[in-house]
Amino acid sequence: xxxxxxxxxxxxxxxxxxxxxxxxxxxxxxxxxxxxxxxxxxxxxxxxxxxxxxxxxxxxxxxxxxxxxxxxxxxxxxxxxxxxxxxxxxxxxxxxxxxxxxxxxxxxxxxxxxxxxxxxxxxxxxxxxxxxxxxxxxxxxxxxxxxxxxxxxxxxxxxxxxxxxxxxxxxxxxxxxxxxxxxxxxxxxxxxxxxxxxxxxxxxxxxxxxxxxxxxxxxxxxxxxxxxxxxxxxxxxxxxxxxxxxxxxxxxxxx
Length: 255
Description:
Elements: H1 5-8, H2 13-16, H3 22-36, E1 42-46, H4 52-59, E2 63-68, H5 71-82, E3 90-94, E4 106-111, H6 122-135, E5 136-147, H7 149-156, E6 160-165, E7 168-177, E8 182-192, E9 198-208, H8 212-221, E10 225-231, E11 244-250
Helix pairs in contact: 3-4, 6-8
């Protein structure tokens, strides 16, 4: 299997991915559960990446299932958890979000940092939503965020970027088709070896922009109740220039 950009950059992901306040994000997710459902004791972190949010949720007393498709990202997450006193609160699973299986239900499911934009179609989005519903307790909360059309058209568009860290840099070319809502990112990563030379690895990443209508239809088809959509990570309404929005949905208590 060809390595993805997440496999290639797993050990540099947090360094190159930009600053994220995971403590504030964990607090926001907990507040959303209280507002729209009930306080959560267990949570699935869907597409957990290097586990930064999973660990913060465990630190707050939740039992966490941390799931990701990239074994390299999960390896970093496990190492991070093992250095903390909360490792026994986190179960790591290497699975695809489109076909995942859990050992039981959870009080909440979270998916952050636009992970669901990696799904290729509305049908895949609906499939993931259906799986989420199956593993949510009655009254449980599903919180996820998505990149907006504004972000794809303006920040990504046809723009090119260079990401740099110590001993590594990544060239990033973007192409976005507003008609189909599909984005393609062509990435070249140059990593310094011990001898001072650099190795190059290339990867292609594809994402999809989902409209609010598509998201709400997929939630309804999966049997999930729409609770609200907000400018991430607040409880304010989305603005025309919001780059990311956050949805809350609930599994009904009597389905």
